[in-house]
């Protein structure tokens, strides 16, 4: 078993870096950590999409900080709660997912989380699935659990109040989500739950439930959210995330596209840069240093965390070549078409430059697609594929070389 680290300075960093609130209070949790007691903590991740994203990475990074102190960390995949759908901040009910969909979505979560957490060694993080206990609950169990909460508790949540005013439906299963998440704490018998500040209500439900059913106090740590200039969090629903399955080049470029105001908070929450360096970064920003240089370092740090230092250097070289020098990248994805003509929207989808036909049309309407450096304006356009192939570009970083080969391979 790993040694428990009780260094007050290291504990203070874990309890302050990127942290919004601690319940019941930071001082109580600090005393427990300094006592040498090994805590069991977790963060839950509902597989509502096939990839984790930077908002998830911030929470996993916090789990990794506790793991480094020697504590027992659980990476919980919400294959049960994911089928319900968390209503937090949603102005309409989420689409319910099947078990098959959530299992498929979570396929790469272990690999992506491994960039932050150690799942081997003397203090390995554990991966658990909440269907292991929630699937076993009976209707009688559900009645007993829900008896610990009131309708008033649930209905006063902001998104439900907004829906009432707009006469939008609130479904019964949405009330059950925080109950199901709360039961995770009971089933795993945890000492601490970590999550984004937007999850405070759900996590506090778990704190109430474990106190009632197990006569035990559970700490709750809510972490700051990475907020864009419009005030929206970086998340799947907002469409402004960086997915952890992005290529290193795309990941680097997406960080570089962030507004300068995200530099300091992203260094704090999404990297492992030491506090002493964070303070120096803040000083440089206050002194008026060119934010581009710091943003390039931020992009390197984030790509390095997920793909390694070599991939980060290569991604930076690609960025300098493609964006700053406006040259085509050295490595291009090659796409082969079975005919000499192709519909541009179909090419975008097949190549992965667009996730769907609708997205392809939107990109073309925005003027974001170029064929051999000429903007494509018609989503119905049929393009000729010359013998030497043609270059198709999406935005600043998306490139493919399209060739014609009769067998289509």
From TrEMBL:
<dbReference type="InterPro" id="IPR002307">
    <property type="entry name" value="Tyr-tRNA-ligase"/>
</dbReference>
<dbReference type="GO" id="GO:0003723">
    <property type="term" value="F:RNA binding"/>
</dbReference>
<keyword id="KW-0547">Nucleotide-binding</keyword>
<keyword id="KW-0436">Ligase</keyword>
<dbReference type="GO" id="GO:0006437">
    <property type="term" value="P:tyrosyl-tRNA aminoacylation"/>
</dbReference>
<dbReference type="GO" id="GO:0005829">
    <property type="term" value="C:cytosol"/>
</dbReference>
<dbReference type="InterPro" id="IPR001412">
    <property type="entry name" value="aa-tRNA-synth_I_CS"/>
</dbReference>
<keyword id="KW-0067">ATP-binding</keyword>
<keyword id="KW-0648">Protein biosynthesis</keyword>
<dbReference type="Pfam" id="PF00579">
    <property type="entry name" value="tRNA-synt_1b"/>
</dbReference>
<dbReference type="InterPro" id="IPR002942">
    <property type="entry name" value="S4_RNA-bd"/>
</dbReference>
<dbReference type="InterPro" id="IPR024088">
    <property type="entry name" value="Tyr-tRNA-ligase_bac-type"/>
</dbReference>
<dbReference type="GO" id="GO:0004831">
    <property type="term" value="F:tyrosine-tRNA ligase activity"/>
</dbReference>
<keyword id="KW-0694">RNA-binding</keyword>
<dbReference type="InterPro" id="IPR014729">
    <property type="entry name" value="Rossmann-like_a/b/a_fold"/>
</dbReference>
<keyword id="KW-0030">Aminoacyl-tRNA synthetase</keyword>
<dbReference type="InterPro" id="IPR002305">
    <property type="entry name" value="aa-tRNA-synth_Ic"/>
</dbReference>
<dbReference type="Pfam" id="PF01479">
    <property type="entry name" value="S4"/>
</dbReference>
<feature type="domain" description="RNA-binding S4">
    <location>
        <begin position="345"/>
        <end position="380"/>
    </location>
</feature>
<dbReference type="InterPro" id="IPR036986">
    <property type="entry name" value="S4_RNA-bd_sf"/>
</dbReference>
<dbReference type="GO" id="GO:0005524">
    <property type="term" value="F:ATP binding"/>
</dbReference>
<protein>
    <recommendedName>
        <fullName>Tyrosine--tRNA ligase</fullName>
        <ecNumber>6.1.1.1</ecNumber>
    </recommendedName>
</protein>
<comment type="similarity">
    <text>Belongs to the class-I aminoacyl-tRNA synthetase family.</text>
</comment>
């Amino acid at each position: 078993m790993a040694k428990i680290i009780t260094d007050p300075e290291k504990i203070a960093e874990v309890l302050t870096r990127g942290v919004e609130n601690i319940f019941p209070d930071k001082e109580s949790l600090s005393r427990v950590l300094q006592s040498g007691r090994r805590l069991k903590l977790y963060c839950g991740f509902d597989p509502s999409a096939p990839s984790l994203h930077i908002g998830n990475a911030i929470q996993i990074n916090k789990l990794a900080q506790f793991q480094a102190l020697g504590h027992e960390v659980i990476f919980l995949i919400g294959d049960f709660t994911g089928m319900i759908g968390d209503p937090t901040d949603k102005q309409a009910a989420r689409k319910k997912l099947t078990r098959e969909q959530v299992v498929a979505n979570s396929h790469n979560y272990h690999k992506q989380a491994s960039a932050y957490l150690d799942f081997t060694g003397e203090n390995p993080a554990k991966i658990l699935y909440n269907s292991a206990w929630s699937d076993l609950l009976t209707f009688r169990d559900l009645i007993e659990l829900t008896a610990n909460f009131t309708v008033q508790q649930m209905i006063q949540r902001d998104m439900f109040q907004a829906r009432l005013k707009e006469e939008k439906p609130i479904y019964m299963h949405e009330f059950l989500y925080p109950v199901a998440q709360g039961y995770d704490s009971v089933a795993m018998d945890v000492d601490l739950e970590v999550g984004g500040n937007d999850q405070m209500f759900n996590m506090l439900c778990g704190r109430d439930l474990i106190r009632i059913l197990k006569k035990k106090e559970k700490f709750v740590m809510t972490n700051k959210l990475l907020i864009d200039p419009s005030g929206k969090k970086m998340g799947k629903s907002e469409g402004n995330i960086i997915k952890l399955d992005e290529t290193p080049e795309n990941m680097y470029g997406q960080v570089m596209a962030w507004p300068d105001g995200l530099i300091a908070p992203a260094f704090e929450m999404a990297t492992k840069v030491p506090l002493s360096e964070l303070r120096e970064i803040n000083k440089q920003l206050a002194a008026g240093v060119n934010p581009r240089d710091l943003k390039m370092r931020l992009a390197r740090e984030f790509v390095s965390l997920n793909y390694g230092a070599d991939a980060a250097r290569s991604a930076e070289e690609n960025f300098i070549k493609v964006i700053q020098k406006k040259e085509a990248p050295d490595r291009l994805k090659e796409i082969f078409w079975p005919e000499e003509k192709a519909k541009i929207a179909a090419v975008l989808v097949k190549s992965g430059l667009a996730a769907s036909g609708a997205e392809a049309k939107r990109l073309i309407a925005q003027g974001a697609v170029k064929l051999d450096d000429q903007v494509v304006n018609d989503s119905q356009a049929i393009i000729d594929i010359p013998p030497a192939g043609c270059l198709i570009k999406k935005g600043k970083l998306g490139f493919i070389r399209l060739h014609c080969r009769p067998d289509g391979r």
